[in-house]
């Protein structure tokens, strides 16, 4: 576990102990009973309770714990194990299913998410990780403190990632491949298009250089209605799709759909 963070109010160093995080200017943040620190100031929130709500977090946890995305997590774990980072940062970690596995390859791990509902679940997984409620737009970590930073289906602020990573550090970004959840999307929308490369790839230049890209594809067999609804509720499609089509999918007894992931590995320029 790391012992120094960055104060979200004044950006001075925060010293940690078992109960609180404090900076020289007197700002103090108590450790929640679940074990995390809330370092997301009220003035930096875009809503009263930002991020994924409790229902979405519950659905995602049940789906992930059932192992449907295990091949994807295994590939990520292999990539991180090769890096052997001294300090790994998981940006937008959700309920921590990926973090718990990835942290085994690092000497120290910090994971954060904007959702307090997700963090309450994540922090119960292991005390070996420093868990934070925080935003990727203002990461509460010192400059150049991390060897590797992950963004798995989560927002990414290029300038902040570059600030936190040391020169030559690895940035791993996981994004949907062209065919990701194709059959689910066919059931939800009148027309379906392949996922396109995100604009964030252009925004990473010139701070980051593309090092490698991996593609992970496999079939997901959701054998019962509960699994179908877990997948639906953990995706943004639950809110984007028309109610009539969403209701139809919610009633499906089963579904077979394609999982398609892209994992892009960048290096921070010196």
Largest sheet: 8 strands, mixed
Give a count of the beta strands, DSSP E runs of length 2 or more: 12
**Helical stretch tally:** 10
Identify the overall geometry: globular
Low-confidence stretches: none
Structural class: alpha/beta
- What is the class in the CATH system? Alpha Beta
Structure characterization notes:
The chain has helices spanning 54-65, 70-83, 97-102, 116-122, 158-164, 182-188, 200-203, 225-233, 237-240, 243-250; strands spanning 4-6, 13-16, 20-22, 28-30, 37-38, 87-91, 108-113, 129-133, 146-152, 165-176, 208-222, 255-268. The protein starts with a strand and ends with a strand. The mean pLDDT is 92. By secondary structure, the protein is of the alpha/beta class. It has 10 helices and 12 strands. The protein has a single domain (4-268), classed as 3-Layer(aba) Sandwich (Rossmann fold).
Break the fold down into its secondary structure elements and pairings:
Layout: E1 4-6, E2 13-16, E3 20-22, E4 28-30, E5 37-38, H1 54-65, H2 70-83, E6 87-91, H3 97-102, E7 108-113, H4 116-122, E8 129-133, E9 146-152, H5 158-164, E10 165-176, H6 182-188, H7 200-203, E11 208-222, H8 225-233, H9 237-240, H10 243-250, E12 255-268
Parallel strand pairs: 5-8, 6-7, 6-9, 7-8, 9-10
Antiparallel strand pairs: 1-2, 2-3, 3-4, 10-12, 11-12
Helix pairs in contact: 1-8
């Amino acid at each position: 576990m790391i012992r120094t963070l960055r104060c979200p109010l004044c950006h001075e160093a925060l010293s940690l102990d078992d109960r609180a995080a404090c900076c020289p200017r007197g700002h103090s943040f108590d450790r929640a009973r679940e074990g995390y620190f809330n370092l997301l100031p009220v003035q930096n929130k875009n809503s009263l309770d930002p991020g994924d709500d409790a229902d979405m977090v519950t659905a995602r946890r049940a789906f992930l714990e059932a192992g449907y995305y295990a091949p994807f997590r295994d590939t990520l774990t292999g990539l991180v194990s090769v890096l052997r980072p001294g300090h790994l940062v998981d940006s937008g970690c959700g309920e921590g299913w990926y973090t718990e596995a990835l942290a085994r390859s690092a000497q120290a791990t910090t994971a954060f998410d904007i959702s307090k509902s997700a963090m309450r679940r994540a922090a119960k997984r292991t005390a070996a990780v420093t868990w934070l409620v925080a935003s990727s737009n203002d990461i509460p970590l010192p400059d150049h403190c991390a060897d590797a930073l992950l963004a798995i289906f989560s927002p990414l602020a290029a300038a902040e990632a570059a600030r936190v990573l040391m020169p030559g550090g690895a940035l791993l970004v996981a994004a949907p491949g062209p065919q990701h959840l194709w059959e689910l999307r066919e059931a939800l929308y009148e027309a379906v298009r392949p996922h396109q490369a995100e604009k964030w790839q252009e925004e990473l230049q010139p701070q980051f250089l593309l090092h490698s890209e991996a593609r992970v594809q496999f079939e997901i067999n959701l054998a019962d209605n509960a699994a179908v609804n877990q997948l639906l509720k953990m995706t943004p499609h639950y809110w984007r799709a028309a109610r009539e089509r969403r209701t139809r999918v919610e009633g499906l007894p089963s579904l077979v759909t394609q999982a398609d992931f892209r994992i892009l590995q960048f290096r921070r320029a010196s």
